[in-house]
Amino acid sequence: MEILENPWPNPALPLLGVELPTLTLKSTSGSFDITPGNDLRMYVCGITPYDATHLGHAATYLTFDLINRYTSLGGGKVHFVENITDIDEPLLERAERDGTDWESLGQRETDLFASDMSALRILAPEWFVPATKTMDLVDVAISAMQNNGFVYELEGDLYFRTQSFLDELPYSLETCLSIFGERGGDPARPGKEHPLDPVLWLANKNGEPGWDSSHGYGRPGWHIECAVISLRYLLGSKFLTGDSTRTSLIDIQGGGSDLIFPHHFMSAVQVKAITGQQFARGYVHTGMIGLDGEKMSKSKGNLVFVSKLLAEGVDPVVIRFALLRDHYSQDRMWSEAKLIQSQADVDRIRGALSRNEVAPTTQVVAQIINALSQNLDTPVAIGSLLAWVEATEAGQTGGSTGELARALDSALGLAF
Ligand code: ZN
User: What is residue 253's three-state secondary structure?
Assistant: First the structure.
């Protein structure tokens, strides 16, 4: 797998010709603002490519796509980086189960992910970076942390010392301990200085894939991968030293709410251990998606895959529209009924947009932009759009379909 610049083609963003208000987003630590016209450095945690893109992934990348679009429309340059966790336990386990090799499995699922993203009109990251291509970066980053006193060895494996960051935990210590065990951590391993310490470098075991490094032959822990990829691809040559001209090194680290702990916490404190600086201004998290009242998970076998919906002939604009109906930060349910309702609404919107005379559009465009500016309030934006459809169907006139269609395409990624 290779490091890719602009991994899939981006649709053009028609300009809106309106002034964009400041974008306010909710972070785990409160609200923060993105000023239109300013550049944005955004890192979104990517997939572990052992299975196809499900609706939870789609909803997450759609959320950061809205931020990307909003900033770009405001005239700011977006530096957007996404990783691919192409070496990890689940990938190795799945490859073993299916009797395939982990590299071709990872490549196949990454290609499918890219085509799903493209179908959903999600703008490509500037850099799409597989973890396996960053071993040299991980190597020097671990050395930097070692020099700063944050690394210890346990039976050939290297661990990160979390002790000095425990007062920054996002949840109680007890909660963190239980989540840590469920999400890839090893709190019970004897000999660790603190149960929450995550692995930085895992010595090679049982013939698993490994890489040579100054810390021995092995492979990196998950959190250090995201820490180094974000620093290298968003800060360039300042990746180990940090950037003292900035209070925080990047603007946004994003992902699903299941990444709040340990992943985003650990990446952020490891960045601090490398550079001495605050990592992101804001940590933005998306809610989880369930199916028909149940949590969607691979263990339940009820994941809804984007590629499967597309293969069944579902219009990608309908999937995107259905996901936008709910607020990104909420846990929500997916259902067949929601898809059917969304198809019906999309048909009505297309009908309204094809009329010669339509209800006034300047106001609805402003309402959509304002809703987006307030923590990406897409339910309000969609509500305004449907109210416009109703007004058009009721015979109101005075609008311009071009003006509204451009705004829907650019700001919401809905090309009708
Ligand atoms: Zn990550």
Answer: strand
